[in-house]
# Entry
Amino acid sequence: MIEFTCKYYSAYGLKIKSEINLPELNEIDTTNFDVTVSYGNVPSKIENPVKIGVAFQAKQNEFLLNVPDIADYFVKNGNEIIVSKKENVSNSEINLFLLGSAFGAVLYQQKKVPFHGSTVIINNKAIIISGVSGAGKSTIVASLTNKNYPLLSDDVTVLKEKNGNIIAISGFPQVKLWQDSLDMMNISAKNLIKIRPQLEKYKFPVKNFVEGQKQVDSIFILTKKNTKNVEIEEIKGIEKFKILANNTYRKQFVSALKLEKEQFKIISLLAAKTKLYFIKRPNGINTIDEISNLIIEKTLTC
# Structure
């Protein structure tokens, strides 16, 4: 029998005990933990689940994710993840889904609300950059960290209420960048690890990272458009709630895990307490610097 050595990590405000190596996370010196991650036997199904597409099954305190040729992930009670991996699978591939959907389920089971967005600190406030996959949020975040604005979280930002405001909680010091984004920022992929062997997308460690919590000030949602210029529009009124609710991370998990009330509370407060902007960027043109400078300008002048 293979014996695994456990290590302790921090992410999303959680202390994690894991026998799976998680080099993406900050390792910590502790023996206390909120969540355990281990290899083990995963059930083939959940009794009376809500099915979410082909890969997911869930009910209130159980979540099952099946990723063909990679691994099966079982999450329960907001404090345990069990992974059954396939043969000849890299640690990087296992961790891609572990630190994404599996940890998203942990957060939901703990009645926290993960938002689909990357967050940097500008003017001592949390600024969230959101958008669909491929919109360029991680690229803009990498640009902002290069301009000395620290990373708080990439891709998933955990939100909570504190004293009537919305607080963003730190993730871990990494962004995921496509090859074309690396090229536009003159970053070599030579020493970077692919998130999956068949994808030209890489794990990019960020040194300019802070752990902790910051009040959310503004949210910028990136979209692509057939235009020559970058455009920005502030969104107000009831439309804000709809847009923000649609950008909840894995929003299909909300009803399956019976967390509509928690999500409504956080998203309502987020809409009331923060500024929301759409940034439309042209296809095929390098506007990284222009957009990151626009975000800085809007944030510092608000």
